[in-house]
Amino acid sequence: MLSEPALFVFDVDGCILDSFNYFMSFLPRILQRFKVSPDPALMAQLREEIIGLLSGKSSPALITKLVLHSAKSMGLGPWRRFKFLVYLGKLYKENVRSVGFVPGALETARFLKERGCKLAAFTTGSSKTFTALFHDKQEFITLLDTWVTRDQVTRMKPDPEGLLLIMKRLGKKNPRRVVMVGDMHHDVAAGIAAGTITIGVKTGVCSDAELKAAGASFVLDSVKDIPSHIARIEALMEGP
User: Fold this and answer.
1) Is the pLDDT of residue 95 over 60?
2) pLDDT per residue over 20-60, tens digit each?
3) Same-domain pairing of 62 and 142
4) By residue range, what is the domain housing residue 49?
5) Are residues 125 and 231 in the same domain?
6) Residue 62: φ, ψ to 5°
7) Which of 45, 170, 176, 184 has its CA 20 to 30 A from that of 112?
8) Which of 148, 157, 149, 150 is nearest to 56 (CA)?
């Protein structure tokens, strides 16, 4: 156990909640509806473009821009882009509360809280989205000491602004007592920029190789593996 309680900061989508895989399961239906061929090269291009749009300056219209940009890359004309936006909005509203936890995520949060750790969430999602996702998951919310959404910052990951805000709120001056956990290289980059320990998890967007290349201190299959690696994580915190 550490002399000073650690702070674990979690990304939400693809890390705590299985939202990435859940909504990706709708992709074949979406492509079929708009008569778009599931070309691997196009899908790879869209992935990189979406990751790019999920960084930089925060914007209230981020998701609208992201969806319309994706529709344009798929070759949809202006009117079909609008229909694409409306359809995805409807699909999201109908299913957002059905998104479940990544297996073991809630148990890991309980484990860390019982160990005396502080817990926080740092998400690119909006406050409205955050509230909708956790509407029926109040136990997790009660375990959090604070959270930051994109409408509370001016710049999103990989900028560390939100992470530094969390540390300030919770009085954490030593970044080596802080662990940033996420499924994207942007999460890892934000943690490194803030000087924290970083954990990449393979339950969302990025692969093992991408997370390692980003410089993650640890790459785990899932947040459920944090308890079994806690001794190694704490040893790194205590290190020079």
Assistant:
1) yes
2) 777 777 777 888 888 888 777 777 776 676 666 566 565 66
3) no
4) 20-97
5) yes
6) -55, -50
7) 184
8) 157
Q: Which of 209, 201, 205, 191 is nearest to 225 (CA)?
A: 201
Round the CA-based radius of gyration of the chain to a whole number and report it: 18
Residue position matching structure tokens 């998400």: 123
Q: Is 0.85 topped by the overall pTM?
A: yes
Q: Which domain CATH number covers 208?
A: 3.40.50.1000
Closest by alpha carbon to 204, among 188, 181, 225, 183? Answer: 183
Q: How confident is the model over 103-128, as pLDDT tens digits?
A: 999 999 999 999 999 999 999 888 98
Structure tokens belonging to residue 113: 């809280």
